[in-house]
Amino acid sequence: LIGLCCRALGDEDGAEMEIDAARWVFQQLGAAPDLARVDALSQRTAARAAGGLTAREVEVLRLVAAGKTNRTIAAELFLSEKTVARHVSNIFTKLDLSSRAAATAYAYEHHLI
Question: Could you tell me which residues come within 8 angstroms of residue 93 by beta carbon, excluding any fewer than 6 positions away?
Fold first, then answer.
């Protein structure tokens, strides 16, 4: 709740700190439903910080930034290589990037990793 209030006031750093604290508490308590809600809040924050990328594109971007190939990403996410290539292309277009190295830098600069 505090994280949502921080977000509503425009304090994204404070929101993430509170959401991370809530995640830790829910993990310690084994509160799976609450943990799932907190994770959904973090994914929305990441997508917002990621220049309009979809949740799946953020997921692919994180794996690209980890140095994984399209083939490895496809296997890990149970997608075809062509689908992964399309996601990578969409990421480059949406973020106005031209290389995997630039995408990796973007992911680090925007705290997506």
Answer: none
Q: Is 107 left (phi over 0), alpha (psi -120 to 50) or beta?
A: alpha
One digit per residue, the tens of pLDDT, for the chain of length 113 reads 687 787 778 777 787 788 888 888 888 998 888 877 777 766 655 555 567 888 789 889 999 999 999 999 999 999 999 999 999 999 999 999 999 999 999 998 887 88
CA 93 centroid distance within chain: 17
The segment(s) of the chain belonging to CATH 1.10.10.10 are 55-109
Third-level CATH fold of 55-109: Arc Repressor Mutant, subunit A (1.10.10)
Token duo for residue 26:
């829910």
* Dihedral, 9, 15, 19, 20 alpha carbons, nearest 10: -170
